[in-house]
Please model this.
Amino acid sequence: MSMQITGSMNITLNGVDFRYELDGPEGAPWIVFSNSLTTDVTMWDTEVAQLADRYRILRYDTRGHGQSSAPEGPYSFDLLVGDIVALMDAVGVDKAHYVGLSLGGMAGLGMAIEHGDRLLSLAACDARPFADPEWAAPWVDRIALAREKGMAALVEPTVARWFTEDFQAEAANAPVLDHVRRMIRETSVEGYTGCAGALQGLNYLPRLGEISVPSLFMTGKSDGSTPPAASRQMHEAVAGSRCVILEPASHISNLENPAAFDAALFAHIEAAAA
Model:
């Protein structure tokens, strides 16, 4: 049985004090939203505002992010997936549509592989299935920079990677970019380095064929970190899945191109719910 309340709450699970939020009507189908590295639940505000009239929504700050506590690392995707299952169990979510972006999307692969019976659908956005050496290598320097100089040193390099130059140059987008800068600064060093370590060990590639839930793989056309080729690779490995490439958009595609992102996401969820 699901809980009767909405709003922001805290619960201790797996040694972490998690902040989570509930929205939407009691008894409606569940959606679980999982954030990217160095963001928090508020990255999903636009989506939740449009879905909360007809879905029950659970979103949470990943361990070491936002208002969730940061136990000492290293972290792994087994750990991050275990957190999702524990939260679903504690809140009373039997099955849910799962939506994750970047780190959250990659954890979604683990959910679909290991706990597919708990998912109504999967949307793995701006994600990839495997940390090849070329992609894993820069995390060594990023982890060292965070430990040496703190999260402030990562703000501008991260924003530069995450959004297209055109989006960054448009004055009207300043509030979105400032919101992202704040989320990066407020991420704990331990949470960042722990989750970055999980990314370095990412390898769901050999098991993608085990995913059987309705799946959407979506990324920004200009995303250099989780490029369109990665979404196409996952799409080709997962039977019956859909692949959407958003233009214009880079890595945090729901914030850069919310209209196109939300149209594709909502259509995917509605089709899976039909």
Observations:
- The first strand starts at residue 7 and ends at 13.
- The CA atoms of residues 78 and 110 lie 8 Å apart.
- The radius of gyration is 17 Å.
- Strands lie at 7-13, 16-23, 30-34, 56-60, 96-101, 119-125, 215-220, 242-246.
